[in-house]
TrEMBL record:
Family: Belongs to the SusD family.
Alphabetized UniProt keyword annotations: Cell outer membrane, Membrane, Signal
UniProt domain SusD-like N-terminal: residue ranges: 66-193
Lineage top rank: taxon: Bacteria
Protein name as catalogued: RagB/SusD family nutrient uptake outer membrane protein
Principal location class: membrane
Compartments (UniProt record): Cell outer membrane
RagB/SusD domain boundaries: 291-520
Pfam families membership: SusD-like_3, SusD_RagB
Length: 521
């Protein structure tokens, strides 16, 4: 094959100038958008857990239920490809930075960013697929072999890179979306917890909490999800999306042929029940475009007590009439539909339709109606240009300040300091208390268990792309999922890692060495 480079530009020419190197760093950040805010990774991180199950529109039930999950799964293949492309770019930047012509201070800052990003991408790889291919070198030419590297090797490098990032990153940034010192510290705390380095996890999380970085919990949990409050005091790190959607990552054959087929943040599509074919309702910006992919397990809905404002801050149960075609006796603005976790059947003589817990779920928790259910509102975007717009400018939250308290709590629990763990948890629960319910939300040391912490993380982070990692980290996937999610009939130890994409296995020449993960064909 004869190659033709019409621009005449090469990596050596571009990356040896400060301007060219900045383009490499910016591109290295952009790969985060393949994971955060995208349907593929929502399936990988929220589905197949104890808190979500398939709604009528679920397109990858093999990830949701582990039934015949193999290396041909599309999200697994896509994310493998994009994460390794990201690692390759960070390797290129780290190894080429000395020749980029940057000032000493800017060089340290950019290298720290690239090292954070390499650690970030390798964390997602090793947690998802285990001890697979690892390299610190940029790919040159055609590579036809892959290696199997121990998980410990991945994490040794992740820790080295993150410690470098913590040491050299600036504490703040004028360029929202770039990683900062406290963001790297927070991610390092998450890594320490994953690696069972509990004192280090608690110390690092506490260092962010008490570090004077300016983070604080948003007083009202529901306000976290208001689009006008997209960037708030609780966001330690986010993958940002531009309000000008053309600047995001939608595939375009002319300007962005390697982009995503849907583009921007599309989380607002997937957790919505099918409402727009019900009497009195039509599709509207404020109610979203319902892809109807995922619905909550009854377990998740029942985790929230009546004293906890996070249920109302996370879910919608009432839809108001907005159609020009209304049932007799119903007016615009009247209640049209109720989909509720309670056993509510409607008031006397009501005109609206009711889907209560017994209409939605069978007695054993299996699904009776996979079209109607309480709808997660965290990702909704009422600033979209139309009801059918699939792209959203919402930032995808990666680390919220609340997570630091729950990391410290979990670490203190493992260290045997149950009162300290309860104190950290109570900070988060105090914010979640409805007016007058602070005492009801407060827990005592003897209530602190691993299952309680997992329940608390579900209440706080449902739908935020953390759940599968939480169950894996705590070794609770096999215990909790079949017990609490009746969609999943069987989950085995091999499901703690995902299958290697079949396309990758087919592409290598050392197939006797680079083999499929155990338990998959």
């Amino acid at each position: 094959m004869e190659e033709y480079n019409p621009s005449g530009l090469t990596a050596e020419a571009v990356y040896t100038t400060p301007e060219g190197f900045e383009s490499l760093v910016n591109a290295a950040y952009s790969y985060q958008r393949w994971w955060y805010g995208k349907e593929e990774a929502y399936n990988m991180t929220e589905m197949g857990t104890d808190i979500w199950m398939s709604a009528a529109g679920d397109v990858w039930p093999d990830l949701t239920t582990y039934t015949n999950l193999q290396g041909t799964n599309a999200p697994i293949t896509t994310l493998w490809t994009q994460l390794y492309a990201a690692v390759n770019l960070t390797n290129a930047g780290i190894n080429r930075i000395a020749d980029a012509g940057l000032t000493p201070a800017n060089r340290l800052q950019r290298e720290a960013e690239l090292r954070f990003l390499r650690a970030f991408y390798y964390y997602h790889i090793v947690e998802t697929w285990g001890g697979v291919h690892f390299t610190l070198e940029e790919s040159q030419g055609i590579i036809t072999t892959a290696n199997k590297t121990p998980v410990d090797t991945f994490y040794a490098q992740i820790l080295e890179d993150l410690n470098f990032a913590v040491q050299h990153l600036a504490p703040t940034t004028p360029d929202y979306g770039r990683v900062t010192k406290p963001a790297a510290m927070s991610f390092l705390a998450r890594i320490y917890l994953t690696r069972k380095m509990y004192k280090e996890a608690s110390d690092m999380a506490t260092a962010v909490i008490n570090g004077g970085f300016g983070y604080k919990l948003v007083p009202n949990y529901k306000d976290l999800w208001i689009m006008a409050n997209n960037r708030n005091s609780e966001i330690v790190y986010a993958v940002n999306y531009a309000e000008n959607l053309t600047l995001n990552d939608l595939r375009n054959n002319e300007t962005n042929p390697l982009g995503h087929g849907r583009g921007s943040n599309n989380g607002h599509l997937h957790f919505l029940m099918k409402y727009d074919n019900l009497p009195g309702l039509t599709r509207a910006i404020e109610y979203g475009r319902p892809f109807n992919r995922y619905m909550p397990t009854r377990t998740l809905l029942d985790l929230y007590s009546e004293a906890d404002n996070r249920y109302e801050g996370s879910f919608m149960e009432v839809w108001y009439a907005n159609s020009t075609n209304l049932p007799a006796g119903m007016h615009r603005g009247d209640t049209a539909v109720v989909a509720t976790r309670s056993a509510f059947k409607g008031s006397a003589g009501h005109k609206y339709q009711v889907y209560n817990r017994n209409d939605i779920y069978n007695q054993n928790g299996t699904v009776r109606d996979n079209l109607r259910y309480p709808t997660l509102t965290k990702h909704m975007d009422n600033t979209r240009s139309s009801a059918n717009e699939a792209q959203s400018a919402r930032d995808a939250y990666v680390i919220r300040f609340a997570e630091l308290y729950l990391i410290a709590a979990e670490a203190q629990m493992y260290l045997g300091n149950l009162q300290a763990a309860a104190d950290f948890i109570n900070v988060v629960r105090a914010r979640a208390a409805k007016p007058g319910q602070a005492d009801a939300m407060k827990i005592t040391a003897d209530q602190v268990t691993l299952d309680f912490i997992l329940d608390e993380r579900a209440r706080e982070f449902a739908g935020e792309q953390l759940r599968w990692f939480d169950l894996k980290r705590t070794n609770k996937l096999v215990d909790r999922v079949p017990a609490l999610n009746p969609d999943v009939k069987s989950v085995g130890q091999h499901h703690y890692i995902r299958p290697i994409p079949q396309s990758q296995l087919d592409a290598v020449t050392n197939r006797d060495e680079f083999t499929q993960n155990p338990g998959y064909q």
